[in-house]
Amino acid sequence: EAQLNPDAYRLSEKMRIIAAAFSDLKYRFTILEDATTICPQNYDLWYDMSGALSEGTVDKKLLENTLSPILLEYEENSREIKDVAKGKEITASEYDDLAYYVAKDGGNWWSDNTVAWVEIDLGGPCSINELQIHWWGTSYSNDYDLLAEVDGEFVLVRTEDDEDRDESYYNPWGVLQGWDKLTSKVRVDMRDGNIDPWYGKYYFGIRQMIITGVEHGNKNVVSLNKQIKTNKPSAGQELIDGDISTYWTSDESSSWIKIDLEGLCVIDHVIFEWLDNIQGRQKIQYLVGGKSKLQKKGQFNNIHLPGIAGQLSIELQNSTTYSIREITAVGSCYSAKDILKIKVNMGFIKPDASYNLYVIGDISGIIEQLEIGM
Asked: What is the reported pTM?
């Protein structure tokens, strides 16, 4: 793809030559990183970055400030509304090989049983705006349940009564409105079918399922056993050890806690496990490059505060004592290598094209060998 934008390639080469003139690693890295934004397909940039990083260590604050905009753009792009089922794993009561096409661009899946099911694994939690079923022929279900996997358990979210089906006699489309539960899998349990007029044996048939929504990605505890400092020297590990039988306490009215997340993390929410009740007021800050990027004050047990952080800072005020069992930050963390690989992938117009997959794989291999912190 570099050939599609020769001006970008030439500019990146000029920047690569300029970077080589600097002995200070900070400037060399910054220029080369900017150049890879202009032309991520330029192999020589990545080789030069590898050489520069082998000579020293880039400051963590510089890394966080440089890479956080990439992660922010990636997260914003990930939240776009799309068909979250497309290309995902699908299983069925029979004919799995045919069911595969239902979650792609369409095909024909059938069932010759009087009850049947189709299940799509969305690959992680998704919010669902709408679900469409393109039935095959006249073999639609007159009575079905639509189930969603929420927190590891299937729950009923819609039935056939909720479907808005068009009036086509053959191959009708049915539309169901979404629901407010984050969903990892979708399953259609079908009953009361219609035998097809051609083969005289298929009770159910589906051409395609389209599930419109937003992928949220798998979330984990990102604070567990990370480096921690508090206003009490050599204390605080109790807060992030995953054991609620232990607790941290401070009798200083102005206390503080800082958790180094050892990477850039996209945080969804933070949970405070108090020993008893909430004590005083709290101020939560998400730090990137040592500077506050997001903060909120109040009294918290469980606070939904989406944002990016390299460090979590918590100030405790307005109480004579504080006793906390655990502080749990939930989200997804990325290393510097992860973010640079994301950047390369985002830099291609068609990253899934076979010829681009080869280039992306090569550059990702170079990135994997970088001697870079975070």
From this structure: 0.75
